[in-house]
Amino acid sequence: MSDTPPPVDTSPLPPADAPSAVWETVDHLVRWLDGASVLPPEQERLLRILKLSEEAGEVAQAVIGATGQNPRKGHSHTWDDVHSELCDVILTAMVALRTLTPEARQVFEGHMGRVAGRVPRPLSGD
To answer: Highest taxon of the source (predicted)?
Structure first.
């Protein structure tokens, strides 16, 4: 086995201004990760799911740093860092979902619709 990394796709990513563009970017990332992986597919899937825990821990670390709750480190992060870490969690979850199913967009939109359907809507004119 060669130590040379796989070739990198340098084609431009679609603009993230529409839901389909977001999912196209997720598809691109999954293809890139799949191409770079040397692990069996089942192990790769499990590790992408576990990656969520790592990213969630980074959110917690950023919140602790933004609020200065670690006396040894003080204010080590900003709320912009928290925003960035939350985006990493969202993107990591999307990649994990897409790794599990090619129908990730439909699965997510269906789930989001069910969750939104449980939230009461204001009466007209409110």
So the answer is: Bacteria
Query: pLDDT digits over 64-103, tens only?
Result: 999 999 999 999 999 999 999 999 999 999 999 999 999 9
Contact partners, residue 35, CB within 8 Å, separation at least 6: 6, 9
Query: How much is the pTM?
Result: 0.80
Is 14 contained in some domain?
Answer: no
Report yes or no: 92 and 51 within 8 Å, Cβ to Cβ. yes
* Structure-block tokens of residue 78: 């900003």
- Contacts of 109-118 with C-beta under 8 Å, sequence gap 24+, read none
User: Could you tell me the residue range of the domain that residue 72 belongs to?
Assistant: 38-115
Q: Which of 3-32 are b and which e, b meaning 16 or more Cβ less than 10 Å from the residue's Cβ?
A: eeeeeeeeeeeeeeeeeeebbbbbbebbee
d(CA 31, CA 20): 16
Phi-psi region of 78 (alpha: psi -120 to 50; beta: other; left: phi over 0): beta
d(CA 6, CA 97): 24
